[in-house]
Amino acid sequence: IGGNLAEKFGGKWIFGGGIFIASILTLLTPLAARIDYKLLIAIRVIIGMASGPAFPSAAALWGKWIPASERSTVPPAAQVGTNMGIIFTTLLVSIMAQNGFLGGWPSAFYVFGILSCIWFICWCFFGFNAPNEHPRISNKERLFLNKHIPPRPPKHRATPWKKIACCPPVYAIAIMHICYNFTYYTLLTSLPTYFSTILKFDLQQSGFTFALPYCVQFLVTIIVGQIVDRLRVRKTFSITTLRKTQTIIGTIGACGFLIAIGYMGCDRFRAVICCVLAVGFLGFHTCGAIISHLDVASNYAGTIVGITNSLATIPGFVGPYVVGAITKNNQTVEAWRLIFNISAGIGAFGSLVYCIFFNGEEQSWNRIEHVDDTTESTNT
């Protein structure tokens, strides 16, 4: 819903408003916890509902702001930024809770709630739905964006739900997104347990070790994204070839090192190296398959991301459940080997489906229909 509304009415307030509501409720969370657990649950549910439109509405904004020549760099950097936020927030919360800052655990909600409110104030002044609405960008930048993202108003038209539902690349993206998230969230939620129970790390003293794989993923995402964007501008390869090549390299690297982790035993150094490389290779997907909604239909990226992201949240609770079921009273190298093998297998399956069915060429129903009955591609 959030992505579709952002496409129709602009993503600025859908995106910013949702985060602002979540920020206010985050500040109220400690109070709710003291009053009644039912109120706490209600607030957390509303926070989830308010935050839900964030990624889809961001995708809608990217479709209006990011030219095709930068789509492998800018959107992935923003997405990886959220993941980095999770990692470093977890480490900071642990430190604040231990030091008793602002009452201990409530400090996490106060600090990040206030920071989010400050972000929203900045967003009100600096965020805009489209280049032509921004009063402060230079004429050179506006001309560049208008040239590569045609701004002329299209005819009023409904979202082509039937065509989206019958589009094989959309299904390829959705399946890839689900499988990627299973691998990613399983690692994100389970690596701390693996580090502490198998490798015997003290995460409070070795927080950087846990954050290192995601720092490497961020660097890989930026570097590979830059390379892909340059190859795309030069038209050395088609976008379909580039996306599938990214997927193949990322899958071979990530799945290979995931499987290898299970055979490292309790060797800290080699296990950490394999973890770093496995997560690092996921960066090929982050700047490839995961943002390829923009390749096939940039005008409806918000809607498509809303669909695929909703489905891709399922692994967020299925993955940890599977890990818990396998390792319950069984924190052994063999149990974790099975977890890593399952994650690698699911990731490889998603990549296989993507490589078979994905086509990165712009879909005909994405092209803008202007008031003069001409059509124009947005993927220039």
TrEMBL record:
Principal localisation: membrane
Membrane topology of this protein: Multi-pass membrane protein
Gene Ontology CC: membrane
Subcellular locations according to the entry: Membrane
Signal peptide: none
Entries under Gene3D superfamilies matching the protein: MFS general substrate transporter like domains
GO biological process per UniProt: monoatomic anion transport
Molecular function via GO: transmembrane transporter activity
SUPFAM superfamilies the UniProt entry points to: MFS general substrate transporter
Pfam families on file: MFS_1 (PF07690)
Domain of life: Eukaryota
Keyword Lipoprotein listed: no
Domain Major facilitator superfamily (MFS) profile residue range list: 1-362
Keywords noted in UniProt: Membrane, Transmembrane, Transmembrane helix
Bilayer-crossing regions: 12-33, 39-63, 84-102, 108-128, 164-187, 207-228, 248-264, 270-291, 303-323, 335-357
InterPro entries, A to Z: MFS (IPR011701), MFS_dom (IPR020846), MFS_Na/Anion_cotransporter (IPR050382), MFS_trans_sf (IPR036259)
Protein name per the record: Major facilitator superfamily (MFS) profile domain-containing protein
